[in-house]
């Protein structure tokens, strides 16, 4: 039995409506290149490939895109991370901080450096989306159980319709990936797919 369902969790769909904006969370080399301690997880690489496919269509239809990476000047200005690789390598001058070229178009995307899990926390992404008239925010990136979950909740709290394409996000392990998507899908967002978002973009921007 699904007691959450019996108590009405997930009973109301959000749906995509109005103009779409896409956030791309932390598809930086630290997570996408296997030579780094956090890099190259299979679910993350699947998410990277599907996000690249989604973004190609989004740019053709003038969809606002905000992408981010996480980096710090020194350990002094970073939060109290419990992840050793973050403390050791997530520095502004470290090559692992660079955005993966598969998802980044420097002539199109708005780029922010974030200091916490959410792309919206103390960054200009919300004002940018408001200026662009965005009503629906699509969340892509990694990791599902950390920065994707945090960004999803912040998007919800800012009043955006929030969509998480399952195949555009990834994590180190499948269990946390599935568990967190199931939970945000009960409460804050619709869990969708790259193909569904692409179809909406094409239909809504004719």
UniProtKB/TrEMBL annotation:
Superkingdom in the source lineage: Bacteria
Claim: Protease is one of the keywords in the record: no
Domain Isochorismatase-like: 22-195
Keyword list, A-Z: Hydrolase
InterPro entries in UniProt: Isochorismatase-like_dom, Isochorismatase-like_hydrls, Isochorismatase-like_sf
The UniProt record lists the keyword Hydrolase: yes
GO molecular function: hydrolase activity
Gene3D superfamilies for this protein: Isochorismatase-like
Name of this chain's protein: Hydrolase
Protein species of origin: Caballeronia glathei
């Amino acid at each position: 039995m699904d007691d959450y369902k019996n108590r009405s969790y997930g009973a109301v769909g959000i749906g995509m409506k109005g103009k779409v904006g896409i956030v791309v969370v932390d598809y930086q080399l630290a997570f996408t290149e296997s030579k780094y301690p956090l890099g190259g997880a299979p679910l993350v690489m699947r998410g990277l490939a599907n996000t690249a496919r989604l973004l190609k269509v989004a740019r053709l239809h003038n969809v606002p895109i905000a992408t981010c990476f996480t980096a710090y000047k020194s350990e002094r200005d970073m939060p109290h991370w419990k992840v050793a690789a973050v403390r050791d390598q997530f520095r502004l001058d470290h090559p692992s901080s660079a955005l993966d070229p598969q998802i980044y178009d420097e002539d199109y995307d708005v780029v922010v450096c974030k200091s916490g899990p959410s792309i919206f926390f103390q960054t200009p992404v919300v004002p940018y989306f408001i200026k662009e008239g965005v009503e629906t925010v699509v969340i892509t990136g990694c990791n599902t159980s950390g920065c994707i979950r945090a960004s999803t909740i912040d998007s919800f709290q800012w009043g955006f319709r929030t969509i998480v394409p399952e195949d555009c996000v990834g994590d180190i392990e499948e269990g946390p990936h599935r568990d967190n998507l199931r939970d945000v899908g009960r409460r804050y967002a619709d869990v969708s797919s790259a193909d569904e978002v692409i179809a909406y973009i094409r239909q809504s921007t004719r």
